[in-house]
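task queued by scheduler; priority normal; single chain, no ligands, no partner chains; default sampling; output format set to structure tokens
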Amino acid sequence: MDTALLKDAGIRKTASVTANEIIAVTEAVNHFGITACLGLLVETET
């Protein structure tokens, strides 16, 4: 997971770090969104 990147972004608020933070958050949301969808599919199947 990108928690280290997110913590680093919280400490050093530079433009490049902020961009990396946005990317990391977007990837995390996409990952959890996919996981949630798969979880719903699994719940529906059982």
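post-processing summary
- The radius of gyration is 15 Å.
- The chain has one domain: 3-45.
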